[in-house]
């Protein structure tokens, strides 16, 4: 994946900032996308192109369970968010809904990457290349096994249990 | 071999395993599921899309284990909300879900409060809800965790969901609880110490003599705000208090679980509650805490007593103690969390107290807690609130401010128009 970076360095970017409460009654994805990141940058939707990345501070997506948050970002074209850590429900919503990839990076990597940098993200080799900084490369934290399978399936709904997981389920 | 914590035991039983350890990924059987007027329409949209793609549903996994609430945008403030609520009604009819708590038709209210008021979740169970504060119900000795609507839809179809078994952080609260201290002060102090990501992906378990002596509703405040520390679940092992609370509401059978004596915790925190002072979380984070007395000069425009965190019967009782026979100095709103709590508050004369003090008493709803409706904040407005979050724009305008505090602090502040420590209000 190749794309341009939109950077918001603040820690704890919460779901009220990503998609404020009054819009929770809206379930039209196009309409939700118009309000993405409204609490931090009302111009955000105009800035994003298909395939772009978000680079943010730690504990991204804390707060509510609203799936509206990854939906709004993904509808605009954001393919992955790179941050030192994610809040748990945002993380699983992003993966299970098949919207975008939550990619964990080192704090120092987050600091190295600048707004508008062009990145290439390779989730097979767990490598990030910064095309705007002489191709310097960074590591990303590999996805845990199950997450990797769900990502490959395109979301939890398309994910098929293998034998081992069926055993876990208790319906062998 | 190390023993298991109560969270580990519940997840092991629900996934037919002899034992589990933190880090294991399990597909756990779900005992109970909740969705509301914000998560429900997302689920319905997914069901509709799959049906369009030709997928046939014979029905959901178990309509008896599902309940639906109308709580965020009720009574419907606009046409979109009304459409969402009507769509929910049609869905529950179609799939045979009988436990649908509708506003204006008897018992209804905030989902988390209903989960315990109606004893819908029992000790030892796995409970998932389409709302982040689902953690609340862990005070009943259950594993309770919030999920998004795709995961909720998945459970509705399959009856199972994946969890990474969390490490458990143990919080032991000891000493004698001073009269002016509530569970809200304790959990704000804890979040202030560990931070809003201090429990990310982990379980927060509460124990100790303070917890043992807390009434059920106060225990629920502790687990409710584990969400604000990033926790997967909050939990309190069930005991005689839990059992009595449940028996007052249902005769349903359950098999509780408690942790092993040699259970392993990732961290253990000791709190001496005798020394705790009333706490306030300043804008814009639940972890940004101060002693109420350090903020006592700060003027506020509004007092809000509502939400799953701060509008249970005990919360209303303690707020009313301060407001009885007094007049409020600033706009004050009281919204009991459920219809049943509203009725109890009425019978105890609490509603009279609030109304005579000048406050407006509203219907049960999440209301302005999430900036939805019923008293949202305008630009530069400053609110002191019994709710759980104070992120920018949480209760309204992005330039409004919210201070989070216990119902006693909020009630005391409503009478002075300034942040007020309950001890100082008693003196006045």
Give a brief description.
By secondary structure, chain A is of the alpha/beta class.
List the helices and strands and how they pair.
The complex is a heterodimer of chains A (172) and B (428).
Chain A: E1 2-8, H1 15-18, H2 29-33, H3 44-47, E2 53-56, H4 68-76, E3 80-83, H5 88-96, E4 101-104, H6 107-112, E5 118-122, E6 127-130, E7 136-139, H7 145-153, H8 163-169
Parallel strand pairs in A: 1-2, 2-3, 3-4
Antiparallel strand pairs in A: 1-5, 5-6, 6-7
Chain B: H1 6-14, E1 25-29, E2 32-35, H2 39-52, E3 66-69, H3 79-94, E4 100-101, H4 111-117, E5 126-129, E6 143-146, H5 149-158, E7 160-164, E8 168-174, H6 183-194, E9 203-207, H7 209-213, H8 216-224, E10 233-235, H9 240-247, E11 267-272, E12 279-281, E13 289-291, E14 302-305, H10 307-310, H11 313-323, E15 331-334, H12 339-347, H13 350-356, E16 360-361, E17 382-385, E18 401-404, H14 407-416, H15 422-427
Parallel strand pairs in B: 2-3, 2-5, 3-4, 5-6, 8-9, 8-11, 9-10, 14-15, 14-17, 15-16, 17-18
Antiparallel strand pairs in B: 1-7, 12-13
Helix pairs in contact in B: 2-5, 6-8, 11-13, 11-14
Quaternary: heterodimer
- Per DSSP, what share of the residues of chain B sits in E-state strands of 2 or more residues? 15-25%
Whole-number radius of gyration of chain A?
Answer: 16 Å
Mean pLDDT of chain B: 97
CATH superfamily of chain A: Aconitase, domain 4
Task: Describe what this molecule looks like in 3D.
The complex is a heterodimer of chains A (172) and B (428). Chain A has 172 residues and is an alpha/beta fold. In chain A, 31% of the residues lie in helices and 19% in strands. Chain A has one domain: Aconitase, domain 4. In chain A, strands 4-3-2-1-5-6-7 form a 7-stranded mixed sheet. Chain A is globular and about 45 Å long. The model of chain A is unreliable at 166-172 (pLDDT under 50). Chain B is built from 15 helices and 18 strands. In chain B, helix 2 (39-52) crosses helix 5, helix 11 packs across helix 13 and helix 11 packs parallel to helix 14 (407-416). Chain B is α/β, with parallel strands linked by helices and 428 residues long. Chain B has helices spanning 6-14, 39-52, 79-94, 111-117, 149-158, 183-194, 209-213, 216-224, 240-247, 307-310, 313-323, 339-347, 350-356, 407-416, 422-427, and strands at 25-29, 32-35, 66-69, 100-101, 126-129, 143-146, 160-164, 168-174, 203-207, 233-235, 267-272, 279-281, 289-291, 302-305, 331-334, 360-361, 382-385, 401-404. The model of chain B has no long low-confidence stretch (mean pLDDT 97). At the A-B interface, helix 5 and helix 8 of A face strand 1, helix 2, helix 3, helix 5 and strand 7 of B.
